[in-house]
């Protein structure tokens, strides 16, 4: 699975399965989560004053069953690689979601790469070393490499995530087989989310490996797979589809990064008591040059007046 498609798949997985977040906290990070909580999908956007809404990869709200009060929320981020701008935007996720829901918020970063996990684990200094944001990070070392059949049936989304992260590594055939059977059982019971899980499994595993597992399980190739999954086996069409999806996702990622830089610039200026005029804000919002936005972000930390941000020379 190409990296950008992997990112998109993981984003879809957590968006459609908000109950995955407490399982990540429990099983992957060893944290306690109260049993008397129900998990609901949280808002996709963070409302900000004088700024456009900020999109989060995934959110979940833990609500007490007995009285409906909000106990905690998770601001989830899917991260493929290092991105220094996240030091500015991740605090926005936590503060914005906390202000909107009026409950504690935990930042959880989910990444398929251990190098990224080490980078994302660093605390974010919010001021004088006294205020720090410590992201909780779930990397490949924390994601289980094996499941028993009963576990996979109880937690098919977590098992699917394990296949997405570990499914192309040596020794993963049993993990794939157990997860595939659990998802097939869900499809036979008419569980709608199983279609997405199947698509993600098919897209995460080498075609030859999947074919061998089908033969071992006595499954006729392609019969149990959804429409999107069956495309994986269409030669020629598969390549064109993947390239088209990848281009579309990359364009979306680029737009998202520009939005994050613009919001970070406004936040830095606002934290320093500098306010953009409406005309200056429009100029910032219209800018689509990544290099220029990066330059403006650096200047925002040092300029004495907001108009100096747009000066031709630093």
In short:
The chain is an alpha/beta fold and about 325 residues long.
Describe what this molecule looks like in 3D.
By secondary structure, the protein is α/β, with parallel strands linked by helices. It folds into three domains: 3-138; 149-233, no CATH class; 257-310, no CATH class. The chain is 51% helix and 15% strand. It has 13 helices and nine strands. The strands form three sheets. The protein has a five-stranded mixed beta sheet with strand order 1-4-5-6-9, with helices on both faces. Helix 3 (86-101) links the parallel strand 5 (70-78) and strand 6 (105-110). Helix 1 (3-16) runs antiparallel to helix 8, helix 6 (156-166) packs antiparallel against helix 7 and helix 11 (237-271) runs parallel beside helix 13 (290-300). It is elongated. The chain starts with a helix and ends in a 14-residue tail after the last helix. The relative contact order is 0.10.
| C-alpha Rg (nearest Å) | 22 Å
Give the biggest sheet.
5 strands, mixed
Number of separate helices: 13
Q: How much beta, percentage-wise?
A: 5-15%
Total E-strand runs:
9
Q: Please state the average pLDDT score.
A: 82
Number of domains: 3
Helix content: 40-55%
**Which stretches are low in confidence, meaning pLDDT under 50 for 5 or more residues running?**
223-241
CA distance, first residue to last residue: 42 Å
Strand order of the largest sheet: 1-4-5-6-9
Q: Give the topology string: H per helix, E per strand.
A: HHEEEEEHEHEEEHHHHHHHHH
The global form is elongated
- Kindly name the structural category: alpha/beta
């Amino acid at each position: 699975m190409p990296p950008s498609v992997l990112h998109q798949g993981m984003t879809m997985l957590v968006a459609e399965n908000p109950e995955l977040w407490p399982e990540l906290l429990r099983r992957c990070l060893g944290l306690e989560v109260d049993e008397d909580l129900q998990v609901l999908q949280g808002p996709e956007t963070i409302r900000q004053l004088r700024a456009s809404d900020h999109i989060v990869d995934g959110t979940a709200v833990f609500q007490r069953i007995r009285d409906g009060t909000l106990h905690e929320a998770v601001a989830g981020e899917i991260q493929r690689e290092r991105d220094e701008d996240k030091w500015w935007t991740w605090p926005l996720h936590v503060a914005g979601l906390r202000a909107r829901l009026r409950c504690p918020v935990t930042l959880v970063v989910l990444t398929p790469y251990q190098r990224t996990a080490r980078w994302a684990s660093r605390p974010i200094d919010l001021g004088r070393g006294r205020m720090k944001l410590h992201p909780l990070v779930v990397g490949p070392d924390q994601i289980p490499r094996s499941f028993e059949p009963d576990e996979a049936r109880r937690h098919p989304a977590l098992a699917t995530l394990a296949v997405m992260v570990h499914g192309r590594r040596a020794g993963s055939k049993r993990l794939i087989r157990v997860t595939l059977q659990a998802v097939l059982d869900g499809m036979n019971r008419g569980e709608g989310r199983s279609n997405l899980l199947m698509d993600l499994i098919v897209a995460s595993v080498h075609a030859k490996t999947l074919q061998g597992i089908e033969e071992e399980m006595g499954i006729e190739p392609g019969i149990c797979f959804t429409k999107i999954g069956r495309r994986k086996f269409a030669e020629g069409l598969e390549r064109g589809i993947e390239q088209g999806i990848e281009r579309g996702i990359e364009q979306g990622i680029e737009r998202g990064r520009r939005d994050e830089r613009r919001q970070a610039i406004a936040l830095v200026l606002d934290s320093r008591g500098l306010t953009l005029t409406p005309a200056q804000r429009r100029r910032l919002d219209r800018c689509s040059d990544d290099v220029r936005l990066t330059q403006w972000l650096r200047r925002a930390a040092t300029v004495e007046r907001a108009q100096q941000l747009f000066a031709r020379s630093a």
